DNA sequence: TATTGTTATACTCTATAACTATA
DNA sequence: TATAGTTATAGAGTATAACAATA
């Protein structure tokens, strides 16, 4: 190694970044989403679409706007998402009985089957990704910590 | 509350999502980046640009590609980033002595001052965002956990 | 007046491919 | 042949503004 490129050959020093939760959150999330996309490539949905399905499954009958707000998205972004999930026969729009402006979202039977398959896949993915943690207690602690960080 | 919209008035049940590290990572990271952007609106840089600056500061003389790889970005994305930071007089390209294809990146004096200001702002932001955690030990534990999750 | 779903639009981020000059 | 920087481009994702129907 010649003296003049000594620096360039050393390993990168992350300096301050290594102590910044915001940066470390981003790297961890990028890793989760990249592997998620691989695991889900055959099912044809993104992490964002899975979140929509999971929320409709747990909260049948909600409006598009309610689901969007719960996910922190703008309601305009829900249109394409629900269009796609309706084309995939996973969820369906039904006219709201109490408000003719809005639709209520429900799972289809196909959607329930799909959700069962996808959920198992998600939990397997989670298990693999969190295998570096000590035990279930540590995973629970991490989940609780992340929740407080998003409030 | 009328019986037919009982469900719609209840609070959202996050169901499975609440147990999914990938989803909780995303929400936490979105919160960090949104508040970061507010805090940095007057300085004119995004979280991604701050990461570039921090890495150049800790690793002067590296090439664009080296910085990009360290951040997990494509090298093509570095062009606009370095263009902008060079226009802001924060970092500068210098011709590499050993390889005429590449540039070495260095901080300017303005850049060093800027970094000092920005770093303080970042650490203040971090402190506020992690104030919900018990102590410094818990922050360190979180940082270490997040690091293992991104490998 | 306010809200729901919708469309159009724009802006950022990211990824890919191809080009040039060097190695 | 391979690599560094660059350009063009295209695809997500996201946010804003406006509109029609309805509240």
UniProtKB/TrEMBL annotation, chains A, B:
Residues 18-151 form the HTH marR-type domain. It comes from the Bacteria. Signal peptide: none annotated. InterPro entries: HTH_MarR-typ, MarR/SlyA-like, WH-like_DNA-bd_sf, WH_DNA-bd_sf. GO terms for molecular function: DNA-binding transcription factor activity. GO terms for biological process: response to stress. Pfam families: MarR_2 (PF12802). This is Transcriptional regulator, MarR family.
